Amino acid sequence: MMIENIKKQFPIFSNKVQNNDLVYLDSANSSQKPQVVVDRIYDFYTKEFSNVGRSVHYLAVAATNLYEETRTLMQKYINAKDPNEIVFTKGATEAINLVANTFGQKFLKEGDEILLTELEHHSNYVPWHYLRRSKGIQIKFAEINSDGEISLESIERQINRNTKMIAITHLSNVTGAILPIKEITQLAHSKNIPVLVDGCQGAPHLKLDMQDIGCDFYAISCHKMYGPTGLGILYAKKKWLEALPPYQGGGGMIKEVNKEGITFGDLPNKYEAGTMATAQVIAFGESIKFLNKIGIENIENHESELTKYGEEVLRRNNSVKLVGNPKNKGSVLSFTLDGIHPHDIATILDEDGVAIRAGHHCCQILHDKLGLPATARASLGVYNTKEDIDKLNESINKCKDIFSK
Amino acid sequence: MNLKELYQEIILDHGKNPRNLKKSENFNKDAKGHNPLCGDKVHVFLKIDEDKKISDISFEGSGCAISMASASIMTDLMKEKNEKEVKELISDFLDMIKHNPELKSKNLDDNEKTKLMSLSGVKQYPMRVKCATLAWHTLTSAINNSQNETNSEKLD
Lengths: 405, 156
Ligand SMILES: Cc1ncc(COP(=O)(O)O)c(C=O)c1O
Prior knowledge:
Strand order of the largest sheet of chain B: 3-2-1-4
Mean pLDDT of chain A: 96
Radius of gyration of chain A: 22 Å
Low-confidence stretches of chain B: none
Number of domains of chain B: 1
Number of helices of chain A: 13
Number of strands of chain A: 17
Helix content of chain B: 40-55%
Low-confidence stretches of chain A: none
CATH class of chain B: Alpha Beta
Strand order of the largest sheet of chain A: 4-10-9-8-7-5-6
CATH topology of the largest domain in chain A: Aspartate Aminotransferase, domain 2
Strand content of chain B: 15-25%
Structural class of chain B: alpha+beta
Bound molecules: pyridoxal-5'-phosphate
Number of helices of chain B: 6
Shape of chain B: globular
Order of helices and strands of chain A: EEEHHEHEHEHEHEHEEHEEHHEEHEEHEH
Largest sheet of chain A: 7 strands, mixed
CATH topology of chain B: Sufe protein. Chain: A
Largest interface: A-B, 20 and 22 residues
Order of helices and strands of chain B: HHEEEHHHHE
Largest sheet of chain B: 4 strands, mixed
CATH architecture of chain B: Alpha-Beta Complex
Oligomer: heterodimer
């Protein structure tokens, strides 16, 4: 599959958006969907629909097999040891809530500490915050350096006897910094501390190998991975899924139910209560196949070349200030413009069909630290091209024109 | 859509050089407003005399050109107006931004009307209406002595 022609596989790009060709630079927020994924949802509902795991009729069995096929595809995609280490959730947010909630219930007590970083998305802070109130735990933040990176040392500095969990992003959705998650995991494990990685921005862009990284939990957002909305994945080592209590109760997650009590089902059912996002799971199988066809190495190369090009172009543009300067950087270009608020930038760019995001990107702690109320963010996906970056730059110049009057 | 209508000269001027951007001395009423979606913040300070007239009004805050211009134009306009006139103006402005084509108030001269109408460009940008209205809702809270921060997400 040629990466140059990949845009053609995404139907959204053949439509005009307010009379413009779409220059989509908001993939860190959510990615566009290839035709194969859209078709899979349609085909499933029109020809194959049934609920999974409950009935013995033909369609139910077929749907169950398809559903489980995606679990295996995902297991292989991230090189997990066992397909039962893949739990479907409604999003990365729910995956992190699942861990915070069940781990908190079982293992945390007053005075225990959770170590996060200043780069975390609200989804990897708020779920832990609840435990502050319910359990009296404390939350610590490893500090960024002046390039917007988190070093192994900044993590090490905050670890102490009370640290019970380290929960960190793989790739910052603002500065683009890629964290040394393998080294952090080794350090944490040497002190018997489990590690959760918020992999929302890692999974769509980087080659993943759970057994090599060694982390205990890895949260994934399928809608950022060219897949449907309403779906996320929690990777968790089997020992944790066995040790932790169930998250939600309901049908499908039980073994035995009587008036006196309940026994819970085996993995992976234990964590998948109720009817799951069946069509989305099945369609997400196509997203993984799509990524496999291109090859994650090719995607990494393509996006890293584009990111470098984007950095060059924006650096050459005098009034643009890039936010963060990490050595190991994913495909996120956050920036500010002298004298023009990010929201005004986003509105003006939108007029040209250039879709970016403006605001704090659910990272208020980071923006406070940087002393910026908001930033503008262009984020890349497999379909982006150098022309997209050039159009971004042109529209930035238009902002400057409008505001120089 | 029309960027020229949104970013008129008056808006750019007030956005870049906001008037009354300070904390009034001896203010006797104030309120804070916040738009959690975009992070815009405004803090409005009022000095209201015994005869219920606004003798001083100012604001502090940060935000986009639209929200800064709106707060700047609003504070310019409200000076020396009494509470009743202020409330009328607020509701007239909000009605105009949300649905009416024109302002109805008889207490505005042409120059004042032109300034206010310069904000009407946001009508075409539903996501930006809250930028234009935040300061106005916050002013209402200040006058009503509301202790709660005005949260634009909870307003229509
Ligand atoms: C770094 C990061 N963590 C968590 C999330 C939340 O993911 P989801 O939308 O799947 O709940 C996002 C997406 O907005 C993100 O960028």
